[in-house]
Amino acid sequence: MTKTRNAVAIYARISQDRTGEELGVKRQLQDCRAEAEKRSWTVAQEYVGDDISAYSGKKRPEYERMLRDIAEGRRDGVIVWHMDRLHRQPKELEGFVEVCTRAGVRDVVTPSGDLEFANGDGLLMARLLAAVAANESDSKRRRGKRKAQEIAESGKPMMGGPRPFGFQDDRVSHHPAEAPVIRQLARRALAGETLTSLATWLQDEGITTTQGKEWRTNTLRTVLTNPRMWGMRVHQKQVIGKAVWEPIITEDEGERLRRKLLDPARRTNRSARRYALSGMLECGKCGNRMHSHPRGQYRRYGCLKGPDSRGCGGVFIYAEKLEEFIAEAVLYRLDSPELHRTLTEDTTAPDEVRALEEAIEADAAKLDELAEMWADGDITRAQMKTMQSRVEARLEDNRRAFSRLTHPADAAEYIGQGQELRQKWHTLNLSQQVAIIKAVLHKVAILPATTPGRHGIDPNRVVPEWRL
Predict the structure, then answer these.
(1) Is pTM, for the whole model, over 0.90?
(2) The domain 178-261: what is its CATH number?
(3) Integer distance in angstroms from the first to the last C-alpha of the chain?
(4) Which of 47, 87, 176, 216 is surrounded by the fewest CB atoms within 10 Å?
(5) Residue pair 207/219 in contact by the 8 Å Cβ criterion
(6) SS3 per residue for the chain
């Protein structure tokens, strides 16, 4: 005799719905409704979990809602198209069985047969089906992982997901409008322009991501440091070889972008810059770095005295006139024959650059190791501070040397453009101006004033040290 069930749950799920049409779920629901009608059971609720894998371990809201309804006594049976739609992990099945047993729900039905958990054979069959489903999912995952590796090793792109900026839908052909944008962004970033400035430019130009969104600095950093842009195939975050597509930028540009934009010392929480020469001025009296130090309505740079600054407090200079003077000197130097000769006769040894790069990476790793040793109690805070200061001093020296050796390439975009840049200097944002100055100038020593309180500029006080 057919049992009467007045509050049955139907559960349907399909793990991948690439078209968004939910055809697999609709077919499951049709079959389950037909099974309910055949048994004269009343369906109280349909729970549909589309495009959610039961094997992945992710939350399945509809499945969990059904469990709560069963536990609270609102359901007296379950119809599912196949048991692997309910579970693909044995431990999840055991939880389901426990909930059903406590609630007195004994009928779990599929169009191909019944499973009664109170019956030993029924529970055994459910466990066997869950084990088979788990093995099937694991095998599918291994096959998919191996297939992805094979595609990567061949240098071909992996399809699916949003297309990468700079490439067309085939992931191989360059996008005629976006690829030139990548090249321009790379040149400007290498020349020192900030990601904030570049993202603002993209927004002003109406250029969006491939998903139609506005650019953010993190998104822009990811694009510019992605080895795909210089023709390399990446798999599981590792470069494994050359790709089949042509690079948009050169490998040298790409590696320089990674060093510049992924440097752990690079600050990402800068407040808005107001001083074009911040970090570039040195006190000509005591040798300490000068800082921004406004006085009333006037912007100034000063050698500050105190426990944090440790300067002499004896050298100050007004910012506006100094910045105009330095900008003019930089623009003049960009057009000078001496600078052209410096670049064309560049004798920078690649081995020296590589050695500095390795030393920087090694010291950065040492700082991480020191932090771990302190956290584990292997060294005291005082010991960590002592060793940390030595490593940080060496790291800063190597970074400065590395910057001096690699900056000639960063300045290449501006060489011979002094007159053109002079004409549009006041239309450039501060980030662009700073990038141009830093590409040519290393630092400036400011000597004590011979006439205190002077607002103009005394060129004899300004001693520049040029990178190029």
Answers:
(1) no
(2) 3.90.1750.20
(3) 96
(4) 176
(5) no
(6) CCCCCCCEEEEEEECCCCCCCCHHHHHHHHHHHHHHHHHCCCEEEEEEEECCCCCCCCCCHHHHHHHHHHHCCCCCEEEECCHHHHCCCHHHHHHHHHHHHHHCCCEEEECCEEEECCCHHHHHHHHHHHHHHHHHHHHHHHHHHHHHHHHHHCCCCCCCCCCCCCECCCCCCECCCHHHHHHHHHHHHHCCCCHHHHHHHHHHCCCCCCCCCCCCHHHHHHHHCCHHHHCEEEECCEEEEECCCCCCCCHHHHHHHHHHHCCCCCCCCCCCCCCCCCCCEEECCCCCECEECCECCECEEECCCCCCCCCCCCCEEEHHHHHHHHHHHHHHHHCCHHHHHHHHCCCCCHHHHHHHHHHHHHHHHHHHHHHHHHHCCCCCHHHHHHHHHHHHHHHHHHHHHHHHHHHHHHHHHHCCCHHHHHHHHHHCCHHHHHHHHHHHEEEEEECCCCCCCCCCCCHHHEEEEECC
- Dihedral angle sign, alpha carbons of residues 275, 276, 282, 284: negative
Amino acid in the structure at residue 408: P
Which residue carries 């490998």 as its tokens?
A: 251
CB 122, CB 114: distance < 8 Å: yes
Q: Is 291 helix (H, G, I), strand (E, B) or coil?
A: strand
Torsion of CA 347, 348, 349, 353, to 10 degrees: 180
| Domain-wise residue ranges, the chain | 8-150, 178-261, 281-335+416-466
260-308 pLDDT per residue, tens: 888 765 555 444 568 889 889 999 999 999 998 888 888 999 998 876 6
Superfamily designation of domain 8-150: Resolvase, N-terminal catalytic domain (3.40.50.1390)
Residues 52, 15: contact at Cβ < 8 Å? Answer: yes
**Quick one: CA dihedral 72, 78, 80, 84, positive or negative?**
positive
pLDDT tens-place string over residues 216-269? 888 999 999 999 999 988 877 777 788 899 999 998 889 888 888 887 655 554
Dihedral sign, CA of 13, 16, 19, 23? negative
Closest CA to 330 of 436, 431, 426: 436
- Which two tokens mark 257? 């972008």
Residue with tokens 């055994």: 124
- Beta-carbon contacts of 388 under 8 Å, excluding residues fewer than 6 positions away, are 367, 370
